[in-house]
Amino acid sequence: MKKISKKWKLILYGCSGLGVNMLNMIVGTYLCSALLVGGFVDNVANWTYLGKDLVIAALWGTLILVTKAIDGIIDIPLSSVTDNLRTRWGRRRPAIAIGFIPMLVAYVLFLFPLSSEKGLANTLWFAGLLAVFYAAYTLTMLTYYATFAEIVDNDKDRVFLSNVKSICDVVYFSLSFALVPVFVGMGINIRIVALIFMPLALTMLIPFFLIKEPSNRKADLAKLEENELPKDAKGVNFILALKTSFSNKAFLYWLFVISVMNMGLQLFLSGINEFFSTSGLNMTFVMASSFAPVPFTLQLYNKFVKKFGIKFGLQYILVTFSCAMVGMFICAELFTGTSLLIGAIVCAVIASFAIGAFFSVAYTIPSQLAASENERTGICVSSMYFAVQGLFEGIAAGIASGVILVFLKQSGFVPYMTLIIATLCMLAFVLAIFLPKSIALMGKENK
Predict the structure, then answer these.
(1) Is 163 left (phi over 0), alpha (psi -120 to 50) or beta?
(2) Tens digit of pLDDT for each residue in 37-79?
(3) Inter-CA distances, 128 with 68, 123, 285, 386, 408, Å
C-alpha cells in the first residue's frame, strides 16, 4: 500500500469513519429504542416511529442481545476476510465497499416497518436488518482500522492519525448527544433525523481516493519478481492470523490493560446519565465540558508521548480521568445548585484531558504492533489485531453496562459510580507499569 505522509491527507483519512460511526450511534442509541414507547415521557410522537409499539418488547430485547453477541463473534472471521481478499484493486478498498453498501441499505430499510401494528413480523424484520447492519458496519470499520498499520510508515504519523480519529469520535458523540435531541425538540421525527445525518456516511469514500494498492490476484503476482512482491502477497489463513495475534506477548498484555481501562470508560459513557439524574446535574453542560476541549487537550497528551512514550501518556490520562471522577463524587456529596454545577463542569474539563486520548491510544497501539509484526515476519494481520482487541473491549463493556451498572442501579449505589470508574482506571494504571518496551516507547521521538 502506498504510504501517505502529508498532514492534510492524514487529517482527511482520520475523518473517514466519522459518518459511519454516527450512523451506528443513531441505530444503537435512538432507532432501536424508537420501536417501543416505553421510557419516553415527553415528545413521544417524535422520539418513536409512530407513537406506539411496533415490536414485541420481550422478544425484541432478546434479539438485540443475540445480534450484538453475533456481532462480537464475527469480528474475528471477518478480519480474516479483509486480510485475505484478492482483487485487481488490492484488499482494503473492495472490503470497505463490500461492507459499506449493505450497511447503508440496511440503515435505510430500518426506517420502514413492515406493518404499522406491533407483531412478530416487525420484530423479526428489524432484528434481521440489525444483524445485517452490524455485520456490514464491522467489516467496513475493521478494514478501515486495519489500514492504520499500512498507510503510514512510522509511529509518529500513526499517533497523529489516531489523534485525528479520536477527535472525530468526540465530534460524533457530541452530535449524537447534543444535536439529535435538538432536532427532535423542533418537532422532527427521529426517522427523519436519521436521514438528515445519513449523508455524513459519505466520509467513508475518502479511503477510496487515498488508498493506493496494486492488484494482489495470484495471476498478477506471478508476473512479479521475488523482490517486487509486497510483504503481504502470500496472504494469511484464519488459523495462522489468530495464532499470530495470540502469540504476541506484548499484545496479549495490552489486552488486559485496555479491558480494565475500557470497563471504566464504558461505565462512564453508559451510566453517567444515571449519575447526573441522582445528583441533579445538567447532562448537557457537563458532557459539553467533557468533549468540547478535547482537540486542544490532546496537544498536551501528544507532547508527553513524544517526550516519554505512549506508556507515560497512557498513565497520565488514567490519573487525570481518575481525579476528575473522584472530583465529581465530592461535588455531588458536598455541593448543591449552582455550586454543584460549577464544580462538575470543572471536573468535566479535567476529564477532557483524558477522553480524547482514550480513543487515540486504542487505535495507536494495535496498529503499531501489527505494523511491527508485518515488518518483522511479513505476516499482515492488522485487522485481526483490531478484531481481537474489539472482542476484549466488548466483553469489558458488557461487564461495565450489563453487570456493574445494573448492580449499582438495583442496589441504589449509583452515587458511588464515579468512584468505581476511578478505581478501574487506577487499576489500569498499575497494569500499565509493566507494559513491555515495544509498547511503552511507542511515539517517543529520539533526539
Answers:
(1) alpha
(2) 876 667 888 988 998 888 888 888 788 878 877 877 788 888 8
(3) 12, 9, 37, 25, 33
- Residues 334 and 340: their CA atoms lie apart, in Å, by 8
In angstroms, the CA 100 to CA 103 distance is: 5
Q: How far is Cα of residue 155 from the mean position of the Cα atoms in its chain?
A: 21
DSSP 326-355: HHHHHHHHH--HHHHHHHHHHHHHHHHHHH
Of 93, 202, 183, 187, residue with least CA distance to 144: 93
Statement: the pTM of the whole predicted model exceeds 0.85: no
Q: DSSP letter string over 130-157?
A: HHHHHHHHHHHHHHHHHGGGTS-SSHHH
Domains and CATH numbers, the chain: 1-223 (1.20.1250), 247-447 (1.20.1250.20)
The 10s digit of each residue's pLDDT in 358-402 is 888 988 899 888 888 877 877 777 788 888 888 888 788 878 876
**Coarse DSSP helix, strand, coil percentages of the chain, rounded to the nearest 5 percent:** 80, 0, 20
User: In which region does residue 90 sit, left (phi positive, over 0), alpha (psi from -120 to 50) or beta (all else)?
Assistant: left
Report CA torsion sign: 64, 66, 67, 73.
positive
Give the Cβ contact number of residue 397 at 10 Å: 20
